[in-house]
Design a protein that fits this description.
heterodimer; A: mainly alpha; globular; B: 103 residues; mainly alpha; 3 helices
Chain lengths: 165, 103
């Protein structure tokens, strides 16, 4: 086993364990902390796959942005005085059966597919290439995404107002 | 034991997807359902990056990953605003209690 393999298994164990905590814990704060470590593990996977810019983006946006947003959602939507930081589950057994079926189908597909693998080179820094691609090949998606972000910002501020009608 | 390759990443991402799906369909709290959605998006993104590394010489997969993260941020912001609005009206964010169409 190389160092790469060991790192993969460590990160995979961390991701799956914290995702399981996120799914099966009853306390909302435990859910959020499980999600935090799952995001960290996924950022580590991005580093292993040679995507350094995406790993940094994952840490900045997911851990620094979305997770904080979700924690705000938890705090603002619970009666803190009653310590009701709990979430119930519904229909656990059928859901587990459905999800196991989904995993089985996906695994079968992964093993049956004839992947056209190419040579894997040494990972190089990607930030400069991604920046160039944003300004050339991906200019229109880049602009559309910026308008989408503006719309989401205005829309979220409007919907979140106390007297939105 | 085979060395870690594309299949390992795909299997990990499939299991992560199923865990996110489990959270989405079983949790009663709307914020936890959103957390499940974020897990699913992360699983899809792992696939994009793994394909970019193992099947493709270019960085197109990583570009898709960036756009996916941006879309996830936008959806999380809007969804949280909707959840807070539901909470103000119904004093609860349990999805099985939010069954009234006319606010």
């Amino acid at each position: 086993m190389t160092f790469f393999d060991v790192m993969f298994y460590v990160l995979a164990a961390m991701i799956l364990l914290s995702a399981a905590i996120m799914v099966f814990a009853k306390n909302l704060i435990y859910n959020a902390v499980g999600l935090l470590f799952a995001f960290f593990g996924v950022a580590g996977l991005y580093v292993m796959l040679g995507a350094d810019f995406l790993a940094a983006t994952q840490l900045l946006i997911y851990v620094g942005g979305i997770l904080v947003l979700l924690l705000f959602g938890v705090m603002l939507s619970q009666r803190i005085t009653g310590l009701e930081m709990r979430t119930g589950t519904l229909q656990m057994l059928p859901a587990v059966i459905v999800c196991a079926g989904v995993v089985a189908i996906l695994l079968r597909m992964i093993w049956m597919s004839p992947w056209q693998k190419t040579e894997v080179g040494e990972p190089a820094a990607t930030t400069r290439t991604i920046g160039t691609l944003f300004m050339t090949d991906y200019l229109i998606p880049f602009e559309i995404v910026s308008v989408l972000l503006l719309a989401a910002l205005v829309g979220a501020a409007f919907i979140g107002r106390r007297d939105a009608r | 034991m085979t060395p870690v390759g594309l299949t390992h990443f795909l299997v990990l991402s499939a299991i992560l997807f199923a865990l996110g799906l489990l959270a989405v369909i079983t949790k009663r709290n709307a914020v936890t359902v959103l957390m499940g959605v974020e897990l699913i998006i992360n699983a899809a993104n792992i696939n994009f990056i793994a394909f970019a590394r193992y099947l493709d010489k270019d960085l197109d997969g990583q570009m898709f990953g960036v756009f996916v993260i941006v879309a996830a941020a936008a959806s999380a912001a809007v969804a949280l605003a909707i959840v807070l609005n539901i909470y103000q009206r119904m004093r609860s964010v349990n999805l099985d209690e939010a069954d009234s169409l006319a606010g």
